[in-house]
Amino acid sequence: MASTPHRAPIRDLTQGPIARTLVAFALPILAGNVLQSLNGSVNAVWVGKYLGEAALTATANANNILFLLIGLVFGVGMAATILVAQAMGAKNLAQARAVMGTSASFFGAVSVLIAVVGFPLSRLILQWIDTPEAALPLAESYLRIIFLAMPLLYLFAFVSAVLRGAGDTRTPFLFLLLVVVLDVLLNPLLIFGWGPVPRMGITGAATATLVANAISFVAMLLWLYRRRHPLWIGRSELHLFRPRPAIVRTLITKGLPMGAQIVLISLAMIMVMRLVNLHGVELSSAYGAALQLWTYVQMPAMAIGAACSSMAAQNVGARRWDRVDGTARAGVWANVGMTGLLIALIVLADRLVLGWFLPAGSAALEPARHLNHIAIGSFVFFGVTFVLSGVVRSTGAVIPPLVILGLALWGVRVPVAQWMQPWLGVDAIWWSFPISSLCAMLLSLAYYRWGHWRQAHMLPDGPATPQATPAEVGGQPPTPVCSLGGDEPEAHR
User: What are the boundaries of the region Disordered (predicted)?
Assistant: First the structure.
């Protein structure tokens, strides 16, 4: 008898206890976020401690460009995730594969275009953001290699995203872990050289990123092939890589508003940083130390929000609106519990944890504690907003969360931080965080309760795509569906 092939760990998010399923689904995402942050910190230590301040400045400037480029396609990846999740929830494997093929072609083409254009323009781009002259040659060498790695970075992120949409967060985490381990090991080897490996300096740091992502991406593809993953596109199905105009339009029209949120957040943070800088180096370093902590504080909310988006999208595809609402409730409470606990621990040990990012005996420690006590609670409100935004986006309602974020940041946070200083002094900056986050949460709750997000859809209404067989989707009978995210059920009209 022929052996039964191992199946990939696809999780049906339309079944089982909602809260337990959501937390189990979110934990690998959270662990992956922590891994990436720790990896960045370790790499910064190698570069800054052993190659000097100019090298550290070079990588910081080049990484700002990398963050912007990844942010440009972040929303497109989210759109692909939601499309795949809705199709899997509807047991419409043919539709999920169509999304997979078109999205892979789209991401591949965009990443190659960015690499081809960016590589020769690296110096001009770095000059455009005013990279210090002493760091410019180092930054150019580093950024050129990053541009070469861009197709691998984009495609690795894309495959990880669609796997999460299919209900699998464990596989992306395992291969991200491989990236981090390889990157950590290769950094000192390629920076300093050893045996036949030449000393590459800062170029070695970028090359480590390229090699680590290349090895892990190829390993992930081989794993998907060997496990006969339902989304794997074989040689007989190469026509699925031919872009479908309706899917490409959806990736752009739904993805760009989600990506624009990163731009709004980045610009608002730059504006707040400028206001803080006006008060001198001591306060700027205090704020910088708090920002390091806040990077980790927001991770539970981001992981839970991403998990809610995939879980809600599968249930939208399955027309299980009761589970969509249950996902939102479970996500909100999980965020309050996890983020609240983390905040409490940090506040109790704030002198210790803030001291990790400041020199011994720094005068900035007490200002850092003061501003942290005021602002850190805002991340509970932020988490509720992030969860609810993830749920409403799962239907294709992407503009209202963008508008809410814009109002909260540019209609509340920046004006409060700037214009309330005559009355509150520098504390106006810190109070702008909880005030704006509370406004965003209230607006998100209002839109979730009274908005028309349940009528939204990702793809335009059209004829049904071929349905998957029960064997292809793990023995579950296919649910009839004409398109992803069409009319809502009768009870919600």
Answer: 464-493
- Residue 237 per-residue DSSP state: G
User: Around 36, how many Cα atoms within 13 Å sit in the side-chain half-sphere?
Assistant: 17
Please tell me the predicted confidence (pLDDT) of residue 86.
92
- The per-residue DSSP string of 157-203 comes to HHHHHHHHHTT--HHHHHHHHHHHHHHHHHHHHHHH-BTTBPP-THH
Q: Determine contact, residues 385/441, Cβ cutoff 8 Å.
A: yes
Number of helices (H), then strands (E), in the chain: 18, 0
How do the domains of the chain map onto residue ranges?
Answer: 8-243, 255-465
- Give the C-alpha separation, 432 to 438, whole Å: 10
Rounded to 10°, the helix 281-297/365-375 angle is 50
Query: How many angstroms separate the CA atoms of 145 and 139, rounded?
Result: 10
pLDDT at 202 over 60: yes
Question: Phi and psi of 21, rounded to 5°?
Answer: -65, -40
pTM over 0.85: no
Distance between CA 409 and CA 403 in Å, rounded? 10
Radius of gyration of the chain (CA): 23
197 phi and psi angles, rounded to 5 deg: -80, 120
Does the pLDDT of residue 479 top 70, yes or no? no
Model confidence pLDDT, tens digit, residues 233-281: 888 888 999 999 999 999 999 998 988 888 788 788 878 888 888 888 8
pLDDT tier at 490, thresholds 50, 70, 90 = very low
Tokens of 272: 């707040």
The answer to whether residues 150 and 115 touch, using CB atoms and an 8 Å cutoff, is yes
Contact 346, 353 (CB under 8 A): yes
- pLDDT band, very low/low/confident/very high, at 2 (cuts 50, 70, 90): very low
| Closest of 383, 349, 357 to residue 292, by C-alpha | 357
Look at the block and give the residue holding tokens 């991770």. 299
Which one, of 36, 29, 64, 67, lies nearest residue 390 by Cα?
A: 29
In this structure, how many other beta carbons lie within 10 angstroms of the beta carbon of residue 105? Answer: 17
* Lowest-confidence pick of 88-97, 101-110, 287-296, 480-489: 480-489
DSSP string, 183-194: HHHHHHHHHH-B
| Cβ atoms of 165 and 310 closer than 8 Å | yes
Task: Report whether 47 contacts 59 (CB < 8 A).
Answer: yes
**Closest by alpha carbon to 258, among 109, 393, 381, 439?**
393
Nearest to 126 by CA among 61, 67, 202: 61
Residue 410 Cα distances to 124, 153, 222, 261, 441, angstroms: 30, 31, 46, 12, 15
Q: Determine the residue type at 317.
A: G
